[in-house]
Amino acid sequence: MINKANSILNKIFGYKSFRPLQEEIIKCTLDKKDALVIMPTGGGKSLCYQIPALIFEGLTVVISPLISLMKDQVEQLQELGVSALYLNSSLSKDQYLENINLLSEGSVKLLYVAPETLFQERTINLLLSLKVDCITVDEAHCISEWGHDFRPEYRKIIEIRNRFPKAVCVAYTATATPRVQKDINETLKLSSRNNFIASFNRDNLYLEIIPKTNGVEQTMKFLRRYPNQSGIIYCFSRKQVDSLSLDLQEAGYSVRPYHAGLSDKERQKNQELFIKDDVQIIVATIAFGMGINKSNVRFVIHFDLPKNIESYYQEIGRSGRDGLRAHCLLLFSYGDIQKLRYFIDQKEPKERQIAERHLNSLLDFAETGICRRIPLLSYFGEKHQIKKCGMCDNCNSSDKDLVDVTIPAQKFFSCIKRTNEIFGASYIIDVLRGSESIKITSNGHDKLSTYSIGREYTKKQWLFLAHQFIQQHLINTDNDFGSLKLTEKAIDVLKGNLSVTGKIKEDFEVQEEKQASENYDHLLFATLRIKRKEIADKLKLPPYVIFSDKSLTEMATYFPVTKKEMIRIHGLGEIKFEKYGNIFMNEIIDYCEKNNIKPNGNIIKPNSKIITSDKKKSHNSTGEKFNSGMSIMDIIQETKFKRSTILKHLLDFVEENKLQNPDLLLEDSRLSEKEIEKVIGIFNKIGSERLTPVYEALKEKIDYDELHLLRIYYLAKNK
């Protein structure tokens, strides 16, 4: 039967081989052995029960709490010619009856059903009249009150299992600690001998955490690096979702909100727009994304701190499902910790104890100075063998950036001590920088010897230093009030017995991660995306149901122009080829003819260099594009370079005295004429070589991105 499974994998789903553990899980299911499967999002869980469903004579029932996911998966299966349907409260009466009739005929292979629908007597009676071969429990962590998403109705699934003793039962989840795994096994009476635990490591996700200084400004800087890409931004509250959505819309971004305060109709509409690539970004509370299978989400931003590591892991797991690189940014704020602790304190003692432990694990992860994957995977009981993953901010930071920060550390610790260790980082920094706030003057802290001795650093830089001091266990934060406490190590620093090293950044921006080389033709990829969207809109389907971004990337890498070449593309089997193969081959052939590219008839090896239409990637090329009249945003969209890279190229071009029409730069500025004049005045006064003094002279009101842009303008005008 495993040969049949391989054939289905290739011909229907278009994959050439199984991923780790998939074959073993499918074999176990076909042998009618109950099992628990723990596999990360994007790891291929659904294939593990969909393929056996097509081999079993009878019906496979998939129990899931995620109504929109059912619709999504059923649409994808039906597109592949698989007989699948769902039963839940979203169906109209006529649709529901139609699905019941199809089930009664015995032609359906996969039934997705919500727990509340499954437990109805009429549903059970219907299933008892059919041959049920497999019961699949999706999101199985919902069974355990030790999990992050406990649902009491899930504990009743054992009653269903007992009604169908001949059906194999397989439970699936992406997030389960050893304690949760034990709970699932015991509740569903599964044998722990058949526990399949895949690695929790999603190696295509770049993990980054930065201190939140100005969340909106930091978010916008990040988004400029991903023009026209799909992403999700998670916020703690509905109010924050609405506020951030409005800020981003006013800045020109394609964005919609999603939270429980919106009507069902509006939430559904916003989700559909996002799924169909008609909207670029969703700003949401944590509920969003649990029910979608959108494969081309390129980034996830946690604007606020998530509740725990399991929530964080599940939420970042909604990106990069196609296996391509995705960026996961968390804006870390100690103020968010206090908010979470407030809500934890409202819980019952047992729940409070669990939630507190979960939060502490999240803080250990956020404050670590080692590879982020080590504490993240350790939480799920997995040991990460590689000390440097190369896909997180800690592993990408260089020891060359380390400097001696003993003196600023002594100033910081001294100020904590002199204010009696009862204030948080923000207050301490305000004292060090000489703030004249009422709170500081009424406390008499403007009279302290540490008052105004830290003006050499911006507030952002001090916050970054404070973050490092906590990472190095020099100071601790009080759980109840968020005040900073000195450790014995900090006392040694004050006495001059211990030195401190750290990093001081001119501006705290999102880190430029080291990109893997992208050996595909970006213009062809964009052309194929347009064709995919056109077909998807006509069929009223999400674009990724037609082809994933990974499939399009491979097409833009290998230029397949025959059926033999085309069906070797990821996710493209016989069925997909029959439907869309010739359409996309014709697009590729036309593109090659227009750009004088001659496909050699062979699939090029992944590591080979690809001839692309974007051959020149030097600052000269960027400068020439600008001189031709293209805006910075136009250049970003065409070249896929980051904004910071474009600005660096233009700065180099200016230094070679080649930049024409510098006034065009001002079209990319968000500042008013008056603000621009003010910045130019500061450049005239103190120079433009270093931007930190300029930033401070402007009272930190104009961000570094604008200063970089205006420095290029200033230098070009004064050449």
Commentary on this structure:
With 719 residues, the protein is α/β, with parallel strands linked by helices. It is globular, with a radius of gyration of 28 Å. Residues 513-517 and 603-617 have low confidence and may be disordered. Strands 3-4-2-5-6-1-7 form a seven-stranded parallel sheet, with helices on both faces. The protein starts with a helix and ends with a helix. The longest helix is centred in the C-terminal third of the chain and has 21 residues, at 574-594. The chain contains 33 helices and 17 strands.
Write the layout of secondary structure elements.
Blueprint lengths: L1 H10 L10 H9 L4 E4 L6 H11 L3 E5 L3 H13 L4 E4 L5 H12 L5 E4 L1 H4 L2 H8 L3 E6 L19 H7 L4 E6 L4 H11 L6 E3 L7 E7 L3 H9 L6 E5 L3 H13 L4 E4 L5 H12 L5 E4 L12 E6 L6 H8 L9 E7 L1 H12 L3 H19 L5 H7 L13 H4 L6 E2 L1 H13 L6 H8 L5 H5 L16 H13 L3 E3 L6 E3 L1 H8 L5 E2 L19 H18 L3 H4 L2 H10 L4 H4 L7 H21 L24 H9 L4 H8 L3 H13 L17 H14 L4 H7 L6 H14 L2
Parallel strand pairs: 1-6, 1-7, 2-4, 2-5, 3-4, 5-6, 8-13, 9-11, 9-12, 10-11, 12-13
Antiparallel strand pairs: 14-17, 15-16
Helix pairs in contact: 1-3, 2-3, 14-15, 18-19, 18-22, 19-21, 23-25, 23-27, 28-30, 30-33, 31-33
